[in-house]
Amino acid sequence: MGRAEIGQRGEDIATAWLERHGFTVIDRNWRCARGEVDIVARTAEAIVFVEVKTRTGTSAGHPLEAITRSKLRRLRHLVPAWFTAHPEHGAALIRIDAVAVHLVGSRTVVEHVAAVA
After folding, report:
1. What is the pTM of this model?
2. Which residue among 3, 33, 43, 108 is buried most deeply as judged by most CB within 10 Å?
3. Distance CA 20, CA 18 (A)
4. Could you tell me which residues come within 8 angstroms of residue 80 by beta carbon, excluding any fewer than 6 positions away?
5. Rounded distance between C-alpha atoms, residue 22 and residue 38, angstroms
């Protein structure tokens, strides 16, 4: 599996995991000139912008280690752009979460961290 396929598989797994845990996914892979948001979901309390990182082993470190301060800063700048493109969602409490997907052989482990930024 190539890098793009691994990333897409991880996002599919993260989406299914979020939906099983009460999130309603309202957008995926939203792009603008500033960057991309992997998943946008709604809970009863907030609209949640989710960064997904997937790893197939441990040589590159933990998936969450790839979510740097600069990545979080970029995500924070994408939030208003997303709302501008989706005015139907109006004002809401906003949260940025991270999901780590570990694909190790036939085993899949998902870790969700709320409010990383």
Report:
1. 0.93
2. 43
3. 5
4. none
5. 18
Instruction: Encode pLDDT of 86-104 as tens digits.
Output: 999 877 899 999 999 999 8
Query: Could you tell me the sign of the dihedral formed by the alpha carbons of 87, 92, 98, 103, in that order?
Result: negative
What would the pLDDT profile of 36-94 be if each residue is shown by its tens digit?
999 999 999 999 999 999 999 777 788 899 899 999 999 999 999 999 999 998 778 99
3-class secondary structure, 6: helix
At 16 the pLDDT is 98
Q: Which residues contact 77 (CB under 8 A, 6 or more apart)?
A: 34, 35
Q: What tens digit of pLDDT does each residue of 22-31 get? A: 999 999 999 9
Residue 85 buriedness (CB in 10 A; 0-12 / 13-18 / 19+):
exposed
The three-state secondary structure class of 10 is helix
* Domains, the chain, ordered by start: 3-113 (3.40.1350.10)
